[in-house]
Design goal:
The chain has about 575 residues and is mostly helical. About 70% of the residues lie in helices and about 0% in strands. Among the domains are: about 180 residues, no CATH class; about 55 residues, no CATH class. It is globular and about 75 Å long.
């Protein structure tokens, strides 16, 4: 799963072009994700379709909404689905705000935290390598290793000397030696099968052995051929070790003989989720994308063929967007439009001005909104004001301003909050919706919750006010400022107070359950008390922050009432 999340099948520019029929009408709207009712996720025919639909929906969510959804994922009962959803959300958040994302997963105490830490630092290193390394220095030893692993895997474009320098800064020099030795052709391991079995017995759940196991596997495959894969697979039971070792070992084999490697892996019975065949296809695409595209034409399964074609095109776009645009005629006709979209998104990371021109001049697909959102998001990361000017002045995206403005304003608000709010206040409020200033203040709360609190008085009345208070209050609670979040009720009517408390209960119960239990008897009515108690008890399945006595005390409020917050 980790490899997929770190850039194979579900990386940022996935726009689900080929799954639009599933994702466009799948019901994964705001109500499903923000309220935490994930039951409909079970109805998808397979994991690929479900994740594609989720990815499409999450790409349309603001940063603050994504943090809300991440909090709500604890409601998902099935671990496999919960892990998938959390990986998708964290992957997206890591491209937007890696530092806050890291803090949030630590607060939520997720069971798959190690994988998510590596994922976050992998994305962080792409965005700002120095910042990622400097922050990794502050971590404890195990997390330093995970951070280093994520950084080195995502920045395989760096020279060995740079890898060595990064590892030395983090005090994990042995990993650099193992990593670099993977490319040392002069190291020959005698009897790699025996060496493998000897090491594999001691390597279960030991992530530090991955590089050594990979080198042995490479030697074994080189000596005995691809038939060694089945023994390698069967001897390692830990998925987090097994799949990275196999995919990395196959990378070297793919570079040597991509056609044979692809054909062999395509026939493997144990490649659940088509993880290895996707890995091989991506390795091939990195060196010969047109050859890889030609090979996948022979894949019988239409769903897998489409998945691999999209993966290859995205890989091509990521490495050489201009080259992909110049070679669109080599793509299957069904992939040319999505290829243009992938190239625009990839180009926007380094040259958003050129990407915007190509988008205006060449892209006419139905996925225009998703492409435009990625373009504006990447552009805003670099220059929020210029991105905002483009949104406001480009006729082609005039009909998309409602969706694009919050992205640009969400970045601008950190540097010029007054201007961002003023622009947001000029935007009309749609029926049964809230004003744009609510989401803008929600974005500001992520970096400066005190400033966001001070600006709450500027929002429009009605649902907009309630939404803004909910977003800012929830972020205050995540930051540990529960008392300040509770003082916000002083600005609200009695009816608004009740709805506000309803919206912050989940965040409060998840991040500060002991504090909530101390205050639960002061919640204004029995319904809120029962809701708070139920959420604390439910979250205990995953968080383990309360003692048995505290859980029993919470159960008493499932049917009782008490005093008001102002008592």
């Amino acid at each position: 799963m980790e490899e997929i999340e770190e850039g194979q099948v579900e990386n940022e520019e996935t726009n689900a072009v080929r799954t639009q029929d599933f994702a466009g009408t799948n019901g994964l709207g705001e109500d499903l994700l923000l309220t935490g009712d994930f039951r409909e996720l079970d109805r998808f025919p397979n994991r690929f379709v479900r994740n594609a639909a989720l990815h499409r929906r999450l790409m349309q969510s603001t940063e603050n909404e994504l943090f809300e959804i991440l909090t709500n994922t604890s409601n998902i009962s099935r671990q496999s689905i919960r892990d998938d959803v959390q990986h998708l959300i964290v992957h997206r958040l890591a491209t937007l705000n890696p530092k806050e994302t890291l803090r949030q997963i630590e607060n939520l105490q997720m069971g798959n935290q190690g994988t998510l830490v590596a994922l976050i630092f992998g994305e962080w290193a792409i965005k700002d390598l120095d910042d990622a390394v400097n922050h990794a220095k502050t971590l404890e030893t195990r997390k330093k290793f995970l951070a280093l692993r994520g950084i080195l895997r995502s920045r395989d474009d760096l020279a060995d000397s740079q890898h060595r320098s990064i590892a030395a800064q983090l005090g994990v020099k042995h990993l650099t030696h193992d990593l670099l030795s993977r490319s040392d052709d002069d190291e020959i391991i005698e009897s790699p099968d025996l060496k493998w079995l000897e090491l594999a017995n001691d390597a279960q759940m030991d992530l530090s052995q991955i590089e050594r196991l990979t080198r042995i596997a490479e030697n074994w495959i080189e000596r005995d051929g691809l038939d060694a894969l089945e023994t390698i697979y069967a001897s390692i039971t830990d998925w987090q070790i097994r799949m990275p070792v196999l995919s990395t070992a196959l990378h070297k084999t793919t570079l040597r003989d991509p056609q044979t490697t692809f054909e062999h892996v395509l026939q493997l019975d144990f490649d659940q989720g088509d993880f290895l065949v996707s890995s091989v296809a991506q390795s091939w695409a990195n060196v010969d994308p047109s050859g890889a595209l030609g090979a996948v034409e022979s894949v019988e399964s239409e769903a897998l063929r489409t998945q691999l074609q999209d993966l290859i095109v995205r890989t091509w776009a990521s490495k050489n967007p201009n080259g992909l645009l110049a070679s669109l005629n080599l793509l299957p006709a069904s992939m040319r439009l999505s290829g243009t979209g992938h190239a625009v998104v990839a180009m926007s990371r380094t040259d958003p001005t050129s990407a915007s021109k190509i988008f205006v001049e060449q892209y006419e697909g139905s996925n225009k909104l998703t492409i435009a959102q990625s373009l504006v998001r990447n552009w805003s990361d670099q220059d929020a004001q210029t991105a905002l000017d483009w949104v406001l002045s480009t006729p082609l995206v005039a009909g998309l301003q409602k969706e694009l403005l919050p992205i640009a304003l969400g970045e601008l608000v950190t540097s010029d909050p007054n201007k961002a709010i003023e622009i947001a206040l000029t935007q009309p409020i749609e029926n049964d919706q809230w004003g744009m200033e609510a989401s803008v203040l929600g974005s500001l709360a992520l970096s400066d919750p005190q400033r966001a609190t001070q600006m709450l008085s500027r929002v429009r009345e009605g649902p907009t006010k309630e939404r803004a208070y909910s977003l800012v209050g929830s972020q205050l609670i995540r930051n540990g400022d529960v008392d300040q979040a509770l003082t916000l009720v002083d600005d609200l009517s009695d009816e608004e107070q009740f709805r506000y408390l309803e919206t912050i209960i989940d965040t409060w119960a998840l991040t500060q359950p002991v504090h909530l239990l101390d205050r639960i008897d002061k919640l204004p009515n029995e319904d809120l008390k029962a809701q708070a108690a139920a959420r604390m008890i439910a979250f205990e399945q995953y968080r383990k922050k309360l003692t048995d006595d505290q859980i029993n005390a919470a159960r008493e409020f499932l049917s009782e009432g008490g005093a008001s917050l102002s008592d």
